[in-house]
Amino acid sequence: MLEADNLECVRGERRLFAGLGFKLEAGELLYLQGKNGSGKTSLLRMLIGLLPPEAGEIRWKGESIKSDEFRADLCYLGHLNAIKEELTPLENLLASAHLADEALSEDDALDALEQVGLAGREDLACKYLSQGQKRRVALARLVKEKRPLWILDEPFVALDIAAVDWLAGIISGHLQRGGLAVMTTHQLVDIPAGTVRELRLS
Amino acid sequence: MLRIIAAVIGRDLKLAMRRQADIVSALFFFIIVVSLFPLGIGPEPELLRKLAPGVLWVAALLATMLSLPRMFADDHRDGTLEQLALAPHPLGLVVTGKVIAHWLVSGLPLALIAPVLGIQFDLSSDALVALTFAILIGTPALSGIGAIGAALTMGLRGGGVLLSLLVLPLYIPVLIFGAGAVDATVSGLGGEGHLSLLAALTFASLGFAPWASAAALKIALE
Q1: How many CB atoms within 10 Å of residue B178?
Q2: Second label for B150, Cα 20 to 30 Å away, from A188, B92, B119, B198?
Q3: pLDDT, tens only, A142-158
Q4: Which helix or strand (DSSP H or E) is residue B188 part of?
Q5: CB contact under 8 A, A86 and B7
Q6: Neighboring chain B residues of A101 at a CB cutoff of 8 Å
Q7: CA-to-CA distance for B91 and A70, rounded, in angstroms?
Q8: Which residues of chain B neighbour A125 with C-beta distances below 8 Å?
């Protein structure tokens, strides 16, 4: 479903990687590993289409990723949370769904917030939340997410142990439903379902 | 398409309401700059009437500039802009929504307060009506053109100064026709011609600027 061919990445004067390729099918998870500065985030940004590769090609369902259809299948979680400090968790969740042209009812949003452990805080502006709680608001998007391709940049950062387990469960549920996921992480977390592949950048 | 634009406007207005200090400070800047002129020049109605359109328009340009740097910078800093760029619709639509929201919180209040300030300059009621209409019709163009500058300077340190250097020259046509509409009304020629040119500028910039800004934003996001 997701194929990358002969990708090359140059940032500034340095070539981070060249000739990189992989193929990912439904129900598979790709773990990107590598030390700081090895180009993990650059590769993810190429996969979502924000950073054009120096050489090579990325295809989704056999088509180039430069289309609205690809973006309608994509869910990206960067290392920035993409939440607004002035808005409450509930408003953030509803706003991000509306801006992505997705239907999300208020009950579904409340349910998602309850699952990430923010019950009772849905009406508190996000600036009063802790770092981990803000991350949970960002992750709440994944609970009701039906899009097939998830690209997650360091999803486990700032989470406590229970939340790490919960997120691993959410990701494996997604893989079981036939979804695909690409993620970077420095903490090796066991994802119980799906085929796990690893790609090491050096 | 309209749903996306409405969603962006709704979100930006909600954010602006939670951060009213921004709106109020731009509005007070406008009020104070305009009010300083009659105080500095003294009570000479003839001279004040002549100066009024230019002073009000220059102050409106500068007041609009105040809020421009934050148009995309906040969304860029917290990662929301990335998500907007990844949404399954053209980024230009999102920028259209942001331009309209920017006008609603920065241009519209100026138009509403302008007639009150015009009284300080001893403007006739005809001239006050022309002034209000000119600011109402012309300020969307300021938000539109400003969006291009804001997108080009997004993420730059000290981008605010560069933004004014980029954008203020492009505001000159709006200034000329905006002030001209009031002048023409005062001199009895009728300001309709100037107002229609102002409307043309607004429509052109609202149609074109969001797409130019979207292209600049995509480059900045790489």
Answers
A1: 34
A2: B198
A3: 888 888 899 998 888 88
A4: none
A5: no
A6: 3-4, 87-89
A7: 15
A8: 18
Closest CB to B7 among A68, A78, A99? A99
d(CA A2, CA A74): 11
Domains, in order of start, for chain A = 2-200 (3.40.50.300)
Total-model pTM: 0.92
Q: Using the beta-carbon criterion (under 8 Å), do A99 and B14 form an inter-chain contact? A: no
Question: At CA A124, angle to CA A122 and CA A125, rounded to 5?
Answer: 115
Residue A72 distance to chain B (closest CA, Å): 5
| ipTM here | 0.89
* Percentage helix, strand, coil for chain B under 3-state DSSP, each rounded to 5: 85, 0, 15
Residue B175: partners with Cβ closer than 8 Å, 6 or more residues away: B57, B58, B61
- CA distance linking residue B201 with residue B170, whole number of Å: 11
DSSP string, B28-88: HHHHHHHHHHHHHH-S-HHHHHHHHHHHHHHHHHHHHHHHTTHHHHHHHHTTHHHHHHHSS
For A128, which DSSP code?
G
